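Sorry to interrupt, but I need a hand with the structure work. Could you add the entry underneath, on a fresh line?
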Amino acid sequence: MTNDTVNREFRQFGDKMFYILIFFLLNFIIPVIPGILMLIYSFQAIEDIKKANKELKSDDLEDFRSYFISSYVLIFITGTIIIIAGILFAIAFWPYIESQTFPPLEDLLRLILIPGIIFVIALITLLIAGILRYSAWKNLNEFFIKNSEMFPEAIAYDARKGSENLRKASLCMLLGFLIITILISIIYEILGYAKLSKLKNLPYSSANKPSQPIETPSSKTGGTTNFCPKCGAKKEEDATFCSNCGQQF
């Protein structure tokens, strides 16, 4: 890439994707903590995109950030709504639990009405969050397609495939009622994070690497005349010219 700042931010974005992949896999072994770390690294990755977009000013990247953040906000709201619905349901049924009796049908319908409405709202909110997440990865994929020349060919290909796989994962989750699509979504998500993590291999600009001066024997010996000052070859006794490069002494 031509801009070192943008290059650095996309490298850091790829690095975050690698750790998100690790935490995503750990989610199947350890509860809660990997999910929290995954959320933290996701927002840090979004911040890397924000910094890169200060230079690029891409509508696709801006939409990616906007949709991605909105989807997580809605997921948080959905979780809160479900917790509230569960608490209301427990409060409504607590007297019957204590008395170990089952409520009459008309009372049962009345008791589950409000929690049921809240649960339906939560499902709708979750659906909207899924659509936003799908749109986010779609926009990122469009950015990599339109700007593939900014990256080395192999990395550009992996970035396109990674964002495409995550878009497919989001679509499969929207179809989660089919059950099998949930498994397919997990596979696509793993592949997506793995491909996007290749951005961390973006090359550094050679302009950022300090050049090292070539030391010659004459420079290390304080300018002694025993070596050629131009090429460092050993000077022959009483020689007027260097036998290696022809430099006059």
